[in-house]
User: Fold these one by one.
Assistant:
Number 1:
Amino acid sequence: NAGVTQTPKFQVLKTGQSMTLQCAQDMNHNSMYWYRQDPGMGLRLIYYSASEGTTDKGEVPNGYNVSRLNKREFSLRLESAAPSQTSVYFCASSDRGPNEQFFGPGTRLTVL
Amino acid sequence: AQSVTQLGSHVSVSEGALVLLRCNYSSSVPPYLFWYVQYPNQGLQLLLKYTTGATLVKGINGFEAEFKKSETSFHLTKPSAHMSDAAEYFCAVSDKGGTYKYIFGTGTRLKVLA
């Protein structure tokens, strides 16, 4: 099993460009999450999807949109990238309940 | 609202010494509690978790943590540090309201000195 996969691994954008970060999991998990990690701030939840067909805002949703395409896939879209969105983005998945979240390897995004 | 505080953004210990990483939470109802480890340029990996039952929880790689309700703490310890323990450690809480979303602490970077 691959676990949680993310593409791309690295990306450089110019201010105003758009892009979609892809995430897929092969563990048949119901819940999926998108986080951003910034130095000294830990991980902050951007959006999550408790089950297929549902999405909800997390702590820092502004400037982002998400799509839960099916049970396996959960994408994060930046419509008009800003330098403040320079960060490392992690996708995670879990079963329902207070269970372990499994993390992908991350996408390092730089917005110039 | 829940919050998590990790005291010390950087901790250094000598190889073979005790590792103690501190985590305190703020919640009216004791939450579910987790410790994750992140090695350089990797995602996070679960070390251990507390949901119910025994308050002393053992995890992988010789780590353990004790849930102390009276102190609202969940400190991570390891009796003897190894060079391979050098990493960043995150404490997280998850609410009991049904969504089980995590709130992460800001992390503690552990350095192990030879």
Number 2:
Amino acid sequence: KNQVEQSPQSLIILEGKNCTLQCNYTVSPFSNLRWYKQDTGRGPVSLTIMTFSENTKSNGRYTATLDADTKQSSLHITASQLSDSASYICVVSSSGAGSYQLTFGKGTKLSVIP
Amino acid sequence: NAGVTQTPKFRVLKTGQSMTLLCAQDMNHEYMYWYRQDPGMGLRLIHYSVGEGTTAKGEVPDGYNVSRLKKQNFLLGLESAAPSQTSVYFCASREDQSTEAFFGQGTRLTVV
């Protein structure tokens, strides 16, 4: 069964500090992995995509990494801002025939405090 | 460009009542999905569609029905609402298996 596990479940950090969120997956065959940001009361929005051949990708203060061998990804947030407070969801797509579904992690709830 | 639009945003139902949630996308996407999101559970797939006129069951389909009569619309129906269906419902669409999924803003449903 395809699964995505995220850690930690929740995290509180001071404004300006850095943090790293983790994602482990057992989805096969693997197509890509996306990190989504979900603000309270809103739908998830994609932050970055990682394909099999990519190790690191940055989007502003967000940097995602992927280790396809160990099936792990991380999302690093630099110089956190109050607006970074949200849930971050790791989502993996499969490339197998008939694989129309996405596999979601339960998310990490990040709270950035002044 | 509206993206994915869900109607309504909020609804309160009495047990046993029926209702339909509408999802509309203007990106000509083939794949559409209905999810429910409950505290501590993450997003769980209810039903999905890979094209006009096709639907399939997801992880938690019981108590729900769907229809995709037009490519741009995906309807989620509750025939006889139960308190266990109190949740936030999200619709999503994407072009194909490898592309980004776009989500609606959600529908908060309370069944009393």
Number 3:
Amino acid sequence: SYELTQPPSVSVSPGQTARITCSGDALPKAYTYWYQQKSGQAPVLVIYEDSKRPSGIPERFSGSSSGTRATLTISGAQVEDEGDYYCYSTDRSGTHRVFGGGTKVT
Amino acid sequence: EVQLVESGGGLVQPGGSLRLSCAVSGFTFSYHWMNWVRQAPGKGLEWVAHIKKDGSETYYVDSVKGRFTISRDNARNLLYLQMNSLRAEDTAVYYCARDWKTVPFDYWGQGTLVTVSS
């Protein structure tokens, strides 16, 4: 089965930059999406189609993708950005929807 | 305002059945593919199933194929997940989530907890 690999945790100081990676063999041919989940809440879409930001998402959130790796960057991280972040994509066939294992940002 | 509200969760014995519902409002339900996503306690997100706008196509994660059925009632703005032959490993918070065009899970409900235990 297809898998997306994320680091379990990333630590960042307020005002600094956090980078979360997501690796998967099919990423060169499929978009990556990123979701933020704060404790006890439902996930929220923060990046779609590799690098686009939905309305209402702060500009400090950005995304990029190159080869088999996608990256979510939080520039000037704020205390309220603490939570779990999940990447999502599909396998080569496009029929299997897969989340990465999640990265806890503290 | 887009709203998705799940219901129907609870405690069920292994081998039992449960039907989850998701009531939506604030958008034209029949225009969107819909999904169920689950999250086991302390674990990550797992996509479970999704259904085409008119209900004519459905897809499932391998672990629930043959046991779960996703369906929808576009006239009543309701999404369902019928869960049969439940196992302990199905214990999770179940979220319904909307797709917007090619963007998956742009809106989520708050989830309903399903606990499978004797």
Number 4:
Amino acid sequence: DIVMTQSPDSLAVSLGERATINCMSSHSVLHSSNNKNYLTWYQQKPGQPPKLLIYWASTRESGVPDRFSGSGSGTDFTLTISSLQAEDVAVYYCQQYYSSPITFGQGTRLEIK
Amino acid sequence: QVHLQQWGAGLLKPSETLSLTCAVYGGSFNNNYWSWIRQPPGKGPEWIGEINHSGSTNYNPSLKSRVSISVDTSKNQFSLNVSSVTAADTALYFCARGGISGTDDFDIWGHGTMVTVSS
């Protein structure tokens, strides 16, 4: 199984400041056939299912604000929120779909400082 | 707009079988794989398995011996059975839509069903 490890486990950022969450995979999730990284980011608020934010490591899902961006390749990835808003308080997860079984990170809790 | 509605028993005793069903409304059922995912309290999600309209399945090896996912295309529904449950199976269970070919990300999720295993 590909193990997904996120850092930090929790993060407190001031409103309007940048938030950065990291995700590392135990195996590269870059597919050589199409040069795509099989890595997704989700946002989960209390009492709700995860919401898809970014797929292919850097493509925003329709309707996701452009303050959310994804970067990285191979085994190291980053989710950046450029200017934190109050509604961004949530737990964020990365997920790989390079190989089965699909695996998720343990989550990063983002709070307001 | 595709919508997933899920249901099933929320309280089980050890050794019983967990059964959940997810109905797909408002879109094509035949163009995607459909997954079950669970999330223990305070932890990250764990993928359980997936199925497509023709009944092709793919399971997480960690649960494969106890899990069965089935499909009813006449009702646009798919179901999860987990046998011989223990307290470790206590979790919030979600159904979700995957991609066309399986092993994908999940763009639409059900609301979740909390399943508690307790004697």
